[in-house]
Amino acid sequence: MAHLGDGGPAGGAGGGEPAALYLRLDGAESHSGAAGRRQRIHLGAHEAFHHSVGAVVTGGMHRPTGPRRPAARPWIGAADGPCGHPGAVLHLSGNFGPGDHVGGCTDFPAGGAAGLLAGIAAAQEGARVTIFEKMRIPGKKMLITGKGRCNITNACELEDFVKNLPGNGRFLNSALHRFTNNDIVELLENNGLQTKVERGGRIFPVSDKAKDVVDTLIAIFCQAGGKIMTDTKVIDILLKDGRAVGVKTISGAYTADAVILAAGGASYPGTGSDGGGAKLAAKAGHRIIPLKPSLVPLESDYPYVDDLQGLSLRNVQGTLFADGKKIASEFGEMLFTHFGVSGPIILSLSNNASQALADGKEVELYIDLKPALSNEKLDARIQRDFVQYSRKQLVNGMKDLLPCLLYTSDAAD
């Protein structure tokens, strides 16, 4: 249960502080989540991925092979094109016979942010590029980021990016310097999408519409000569003499000079991220490091959590403890859901939580609701409110200090 005015976990900083919320996230049950649901840590580590898979290998010429199949429904009207203007090229999700020219010398399984940007880079360098996207529309995960607004990037220094990447962030140091946060903003703005910087350095489109970001990237890709085949799942990477020479899809086989695998993780099967990319990479000979959840909400089965559903907290400090030892802490925003907790600081803490749970440790979350106030200042604030509301019931005397759900629901018991 949640305790107000109670001490935190044993050994926790600020033990005995009032205005603190203490939440346990223990247990050992793991599950993979139903298709279409975002996967969360549920009293134990989810079998989700914390990183995307990328692989580049070279091979032969690009030409479709295999039996001709009827073209499936296009993602968007061919006359309009995904680029928003006549003449934009978009492949239908069926197979095309050997007499039809399809794409070019580079194949990209997956059409998310990584696939589109890699496709843009290759097409602008002169490669003939085809993106194979198994979903009906590209960029589906981008459409739900930032609550539908698309948190494009952050205005922080590159060193901060590296520091905040889970695992070995230094591995991406070179890539981050070759294409920086400023570069992605410049790419979008040079192609008509204005951006803005919000609190915490977060960068969003001025329109607050994630679809505008997706449409802009597709437009840039198409204008560079790239082609997209939707509803086309890649089921294998074609190998010859230790090299990738194409891909096998549900619509047939396609040969290529190079294959770039940008299939994402397994965090949200409904957007296409179902873990298939790691399996393709493993079949191609790559060693897959054991995968775990990261940037995911946390679940708890304590009954009071449901009573707090919808409660959003700002300027709070969330601290994780594993077997009573502090392992991570974040300051910012969070919210309660019907299953547990989510929000920016929870997502940032989730990698530490999943690792500790995978190690079999009891994980506890301690939320300091007033981290900016010392014990003395907080005590003075409470005394002032009690004097001001001395003629009211106790529960009504806390309305200026805490959200009402925290002292009117079962969570306050």
Topology:
Elements lengths: L19 E6 L15 E2 L11 E5 L5 E2 L40 E4 L3 H12 L4 E4 L20 E2 L3 H7 L8 H6 L2 H9 L5 E3 L4 E4 L4 H14 L3 E3 L4 E7 L2 E7 L2 E4 L2 E5 L13 H8 L14 E2 L4 H4 L4 E11 L2 E12 L3 E3 L1 H15 L4 E6 L6 H14 L15 H5 L5
Helix pairs in contact: 1-5
In short:
The chain has 413 residues and is of the alpha+beta class. The protein is built from ten helices and 19 strands.
Can you walk through the features of this model?
This protein is α+β, with helices and mostly antiparallel strands. 23% of the residues lie in helices and 22% in strands. The chain contains 10 helices and 19 strands. It has helices at residues 113-124, 158-164, 173-178, 181-189, 210-223, 276-283, 304-307, 344-358, 375-388, 404-408; strands at residues 20-25, 41-42, 54-58, 64-65, 106-109, 129-132, 153-154, 195-197, 202-205, 227-229, 234-240, 243-249, 252-255, 258-262, 298-299, 312-322, 325-336, 340-342, 363-368. The strands form 4 sheets. The chain has a 7-stranded mixed beta sheet. Strands 3-14-5-6-10 form a 5-stranded mixed beta sheet, with helices on both faces. Strands 4-13-12-11 form a 4-stranded antiparallel beta sheet, with helices on one face. Helix 1 packs parallel to helix 5. The termini are close together. The model is unreliable at 1-18 and 26-104 (pLDDT under 50).
